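Box 4.2: Ligand-aware structure prediction
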Amino acid sequence: MNPFSYTRAAGAEAAIHAGAAHGAKFLGGGTNLVDLMKSDVEHPTALVDINHIGLDSVVKMADGVRIGALVRNSDLANHPLIVESYPMLSHALLAGASPQLRNRATTGGNLMQRTRCYYFADTAFPACNKRAPGSGCAAINGFNRIHAILGQTDEGATSAHTCIATHPSDMCVALYALGAKVEVDGPKGKRVIPVTEFHRLPGDDPAKDTVLGEGELITGVTLPAAKFAKNSWYLKARDRQSYAFALVSVAAGLEMSGGSSGIIKSAGLALGGVAHKPWRSAEAEAALVGKPATRETFVQAAELTVKGAKTYEHNAFKVELAKQCVVKTLMQAAQIT
Ligand code: SF4
């Protein structure tokens, strides 16, 4: 581990000031960052501890809910406002990590999670454009069972742009389906970013996971007024029943007219484990609206979620798995057995 300075910020303003130093990183729960520092993947020059700056409450607003960036994943999953009005988010949080990690991990930190691509986390493999920009991609011709099938940059193993990594978060998949927004503050002031625009596809810069600028601090997440509380679900397909990242996950919410067996008024649908960011398919959502909540409707939408998928030696199974998971999740959300 490289040497670094440590500062405990007393408030958000002090944190932003300290975080503006080149190479500084904010320390919340530290469940991902500290692991990566120990593995010699992350090398911050300064850690700014933000655990004592507040931002740790869940507040009901006139038009939704505001979640402080430092609300722990366990507290958020079990908060009455979330359990009652956004159960999909509660389920997604409880599907992630272990109880010990959820007790420590924060809402802001969950948004900032880095990929679990084996080659990114293991410095014995020199080729990784995300860890060492310009070095190539070991995964594309390596063991790529957990890797992306959508939105990847795929120009060959030696290209400086190639990255087929997936985003690891469960929470974020639910936030995408719910249409959340991310509030940030930084050296250039405050801004609000729709969560669907917060994470990046690899494009020509795989090292960059999000659109955050240097020194910008996540201060909170807002959820719009609840409309999927009665008809929503989160499904996670993984190799083990607990403490494993998703091969494919799906968050789905349906707003129904005429009860659970009626017509779909609006839909939120996002997939995890298939792309560099949670994958929200506007085309699949549009295909659900105005249709009856039937298996046939859901099968048609599922086909659209994987439109344009490209697979590699070990992950072709994800296309069919994703479609099956989408249908099953929508059936659960619609309460169809
Ligand atoms: Fe690195 Fe991305 Fe390739 Fe994984 S998929 S080795 S994170 S460049």
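In the box above, the bound molecule is iron/sulfur cluster. The chain has a mean pLDDT of 97.
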